[in-house]
Amino acid sequence: MKKFTAYDIAQIAMLACFIILAGYFKIPTGIPGSEFQLSAPVAIAIAAVFGFKRYFLAGMIASVLLLLLGIHTFINAEISLIFRLTVGLIILFCGTSIPVLMLAGPIGTAVARIGLAFTLDIPILPLLIPVIPGMIITALCVWPITKMMRTIHEKVGARNSVPRVF
Membrane-spanning regions, if any (predicted)? Predict the structure, then answer.
């Protein structure tokens, strides 16, 4: 098992903060109960660039922080967890090609909404139909965000020469 360095810990914490901050950027889509959150394509880009383990840890830290601050509820955390697991596993097993990244977000959103429907014991379609515009926007935004994040990581983040902490 690879031990985390101080650099790794700081990087995961910064990725968690990036996920939280991106969640505040919301675009209304014109359908009541529907909005696009920038955190979805940002999370997919993090999974593609930094790998499943860092992506999942950063996402869990973000969810715990939002729960502790009272910004999220357990239902929000459930949706986030299902989305993260679905997207992370899709990228882990299918790779980081453009089509995979474009499909991972909508699939993750759909699976998270299906999980929410089972939790709340309500029909799936009323939860799924309003998020279709956000799924489309996520699919369109994920590649430019991933490309930008990958470029920044290669130029800045690849210089990891910090000794291991624990």
Answer: 12-31, 43-69, 81-104, 124-145
